Each structure stands twice: as structure tokens, then as C-alpha cells.
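Submission checklist for the structure archive. All mandatory fields must be present; incomplete records are returned to the submitter.

[x] Identifier: SsrA-binding protein
[x] Organism: Aureimonas fodinaquatilis
[x] Residue count: 159
[x] Sequence attached
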Amino acid sequence: MAEGKGTKSNIVAENRKARFHYEIVDTLEAGMVLTGTEVKSLREGRATIAESYATEEGGEIWLINSFVPEYLQANRFNHAPKRRRKLLVHKKQLNRLAGAVQRDGMTLVPLKIYFNESGMAKLELAVAKGKNAPDKRETIKERDWNRQKQRVMKEAGRD
């Protein structure tokens, strides 16, 4: 769905545990309503979205519990680090996301914040379903098996 994914060089914050705790069903790119000091703080690469989530309230999508630290040079004109941030999505996308959350019990999980090619701050948002303990154990087994395969292939290549 999201065409303009961020590259490694312009990723500001990444939720690395999201793919472990959730089964990602769909992703989309959303804009963010930010203040000037928040953008400057993001450009410094100091944001955390590991504990955050998105929710639909009053026909809008909000990012909750994300941490963008204060910009030190801003003095008294700074923003609140844990404020709720409005996400910008099309009405059709909003209806689909709200339906998935209400109907199927899905969760809206932020995956990463990045700056796109035109310098706009974007959020990659995922519609996800929570994994239970056996699914998480299976993920760990699969990851360990892939690491072992890579080691064996590397060893075989040296001989």
C-alpha cells in the first residue's frame, strides 16, 4: 500500500519489537501534524515510538504515547514531549482502519517515523493482530533456524 517507504538514511525512529509482538496485516503511510520544535527534534533523530499506538477518535487518527524530546534551543517555545499527535490519512483509509479495529479487533501500531524524499515527516502505520505466546515462540525458533542456516552456508562457502 505505502509506495514511498523511507530509506535507512532518513529513518528517525523505529518500533523494532512490533513485528515480534504483532502479526502485521497491512501497512500505510500517514502524515503527521507537528510543531516546528518537534520537526527539529526529529531531524536530530531523537524520538521513540516503541510504546506508542494509534487510535481513531472523532473521525481522526491520533498517535498516542510517542516520545519526541524537547528541542534544547527552543527555550520557552517548546512542545510537550508526550503529546498526542494527529495523523493525516485519506477519509477512505480512515474508514478502513476504523473498521478493522472495531470489527476484527486489530490494533494500529506505528512501525517507523522517517522523512520522505521531499523532507516531510511520515509515519509508517500498520494494522496488526496481537500474537500469543506460542506464536512468539515459533517466531523465535524460525529466527534461530535462519541464523543457523546462514552460519552453515557461510562455513560451506569458506571450504
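[x] Structure attached
Curator remark: The chain has one domain: 9-130. The longest strand covers residues 22-32.
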